[in-house]
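Much of our argument rests on the idea that a fold can be written as discrete symbols. Part of our work consisted of pairing the sequence of a single chain with a tokenised description of its backbone. We regard such an encoding as a compact summary of how the chain folds. The amino acid sequence and the backbone structure tokens for this protein are reproduced below.
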Amino acid sequence: MGQYYLYCMVLTNLLSLFIYNVFGKWFFPRTLAVITLVALEIGICFSRKRKYEHWLKIHIGCFILSYYLLFGGGINEAFLRIEPLQTYY
């Protein structure tokens, strides 16, 4: 299940970098995608090497961070795209 999560997260975040930008400049959710990709890479590196004492804590922490960033990006997009929520943005 973890590998499916990894593949889906990498695919989602890479595709989010290619979404057309309405404002014509770098948009903050793209920064979240880059941070998520870095967190995923760190989590995978620590789980594959397993030579550090706290590798499992770092691995789990990185993937929890990637989940929170995914959830935060989804909330941000909801406030940007859904008309009734735009009044609160």
Observations:
- The first helix runs from residue 2 to 16.
- DSSP finds three helices and no strands in the chain.
- The chain has one domain: 2-88.
- The helical segments are 2-16, 28-49, 55-81.
